[in-house]
Specification:
Blueprint lengths: L22 E4 L9 H7 L7 E4 L3 H5 L6 H13 L1
Parallel strand pairs: 1-2
């Protein structure tokens, strides 16, 4: 017997007026619209309910990070998961 867990998916722009208890948010290289990452991250009720997939720093800021240590730490953390 298999137990099933229902799940739903939604695009970021559909979530503009909504909040979510739990969310898996893709912030990788295929993120395309300006402000999309902010909208996605701000829909969560708390940080405990948010899981980030494929984090690409340049998609949040539009530029390459200037702090090399921070970039190294992001790479290290992505290798762990």
């Amino acid at each position: 017997m298999l137990s099933l867990i229902f799940s739903w998916a939604s695009i970021v722009h559909k979530m503009l007026s909504c909040t979510a208890d739990h969310a898996v948010i893709y912030l990788g290289s295929r993120l395309f619209a300006a402000g999309q990452a902010y909208i996605a991250l701000s829909r969560g009720q708390s940080l405990d309910g948010i899981r980030i997939e494929e984090f690409d720093y340049s998609k949040l800021t539009g530029r390459v990070p200037c702090n090399g240590e921070a970039l190294d730490e992001m790479i290290r953390l992505s290798d762990i998961s």
